[in-house]
Amino acid sequence: MPFNPDHNAHIIKSLAQELGFDFCGIARAGFLEEEAPKLEEWLSRNYQGKMAYMANHFDKRLDPRLLVDGAKTVVSLIYNYYPPERLPEGKDDYKIAKYAYGKDYHFVIKDKLKEFLFNLQEKLGGINGRAFVDSAPVMERQWAAKSGIGWLGKNSLLLNRKMGSFFFLAELIIDLEATPDIPMAKDYCGSCTKCIDACPTDAITQAGVVDGSKCISYFTIELKEELPSEMKGKFENWMFGCDICQDVCPWNRFSKPHQEEQFLPHPELEDMNKRDWEEITQETFGRLFQKSAVKRTKLAGLKRNIDFLK
């Protein structure tokens, strides 16, 4: 490979900045030894619920070298999605998680990562690598923490001291040697338990551990069958996803509005009231969420969620 690890790291970080990523961290690719027993226990407790895919590719989740031949480096990237203006979130409003306001992030960020890899190859020669946006068995939060761009909060999300947690994580796994960053020496949650206390379904079982099968996001997005009756009245009007543990996090007072036009909501969304949502048609659903992550639930799934909230 050309140049040296320091130079390569400098090029990687410069390109990340040019492409609009807020933070970029570098870690040496290898086996996540500390995570193996944690992941094993999480799965043994069935915290994945009906998300069967979480139990697949156990080895690949823990070792990125099994995803990319000869991988030497994991580049972790942060991309802001905190909205300039929130959609209505009063007690009489049905709510959508902020990450899903605009165009599906998988497409927006994947395009940026392809450009990133292309530019990297242009500058440094033949690099083999793959780009990931929540799209393969990669433990993205753990790699981000290992690369020094944040720490894992009590709600299990990555927290960053300058921008909280309203951001997407993405990774490049490459066979290029680059000087790794140093992980944070400690977490900065301290004795705060606001996220644990605020979760209406008690999904955060202990600091850093979330029972995915109790999370409102799981119920409203991942679960395809009937919603469990014992959860009735606990969703606080979230019809797609949930931001409760992020909204109460003190670190999110540092959230700044994103600059990504593609993440802005459809103009009609602001004017939707409870009755509009309850009477939503396929035509309106298609118009509002044409390229949105909300399409994952389909109209039938969204209607099921709304009916459950009534």
UniProtKB/TrEMBL annotation:
The residues the record assigns to binding cob(II)alamin are R61, D134, N155, L158, L169, S217, C242, D243
Question: What top-tier enzyme class does this entry carry?
Answer: oxidoreductase
- Chief place of localization: cytoplasm
Give the note describing cofactor binding and stoichiometry: Binds 2 [4Fe-4S] clusters per monomer.
Q: Which domain of life is it from?
A: Bacteria
State its Enzyme Commission number(s): 1.17.99.6
Ordered alphabetically, the record's keywords are: 4Fe-4S, Cobalamin, Cobalt, Cytoplasm, Iron, Iron-sulfur, Metal-binding, Oxidoreductase, Queuosine biosynthesis, tRNA processing
**Residues annotated as binding [4Fe-4S] cluster 2:** C199, C215, C242, C245
Q: Cofactors per UniProt?
A: [4Fe-4S] cluster; cob(II)alamin
Reaction equations catalysed: epoxyqueuosine(34) in tRNA + AH2 = queuosine(34) in tRNA + A + H2O
Give the family per the record.
Belongs to the QueG family.
Subunit composition?
A: Monomer.
State the protein's name.
Epoxyqueuosine reductase
